[in-house]
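Box S2. Input/output pair 1.
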Amino acid sequence: MLKSDKLSQNHTTMPNNKSAFAQVSDAFPMFGANIKRLWGTKDFTTYIKALLQDARDGSKTGFPEGVLSALIRLSDLHDRKFPELQPCIDNNENFKVVNEAFPRIGSKISACWGTAEFNPYISSLLHDSRGGNRKGFPFETLMALHALSEQHNKEYAQLYPLIDVWTQSDT
């Protein structure tokens, strides 16, 4: 296949909502190029969620409100067009252990899976912040939570920037 054929084929898979794509691409060409390259892949969802999370956290400053809403529209459009690419852990054995014992926690884990919100949520479950008043999880559930955390960290490592402890200062 010629490079020009591949490019035109990629264009046909781009979103119909060209105005949202153009809005992002015009303001931030690098992000537009990445969106175009990742469209229709599993990595698209992770990339967009990381961009949106960075914008919410303030680490990606300078996103105009229109660009943020365009990113959200593109994310929603991608989710509708490619539902099979959405992160899903419903058939994961460790998830089933947690979900059967604690359905509310299972629901939250399912909603956070594949996002940067997953680790803080798991951490809040595993570390008592109520002054020792928590009963704790049954052993099987605790091991399942740890296994899910490890799996998430491996599958979505790009959500968590590496920290070089040797170059950080204490100031």
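Box S3. Input/output pair 2.
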Amino acid sequence: MFGEIGVPLLSQAAAAILASILLSFLFSIRLVPINGVTRLSFARDRFLAFAGIAVPLAVVAFATGYLTGLSRQPAVTATIPAVLTLIGGVFAYVSAARPEARAPMGLGIILFALILVLSTNYYSAARESGRLGRLLLLSEQEKMITTRRANMNLQTDFPAWMLTGEPSR
């Protein structure tokens, strides 16, 4: 069932982490002129700065999207203010403490929003398809019980005690 810890959930979380590492790598490559020739250069310190911000935000975004998507309650009214507060607070703190970290924070915020929207959408659809499957299963069970009761010359309407678990008086 949905929400179980298994291969699909872990692979999707791994995909979110891998996307953050890949984007960090792409943002760490820069063009550097060497002897009049422009070459690609990889900046390890820049990669670590990007990945150090992007990976934790990707994990938090995935977990938030997962829980919001599977929730049957209107979690969006609680999630959106919390997410905006988190992003605003972290960005303000990092910008004040280390102005050179604004670019990695921008990447992290974009990645956070993207993963949050995608995971919320995916797990909302998963929740609804699970609900549809459950209703179809219940309909099939009801039809089987009704058919069996008709074959046994019983009333096809379910007695009240079958639905509530208590005999009617």
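Caption for Box S3: Residues 102-151 form the longest helix (50 residues). The longest strand covers residues 29-34.
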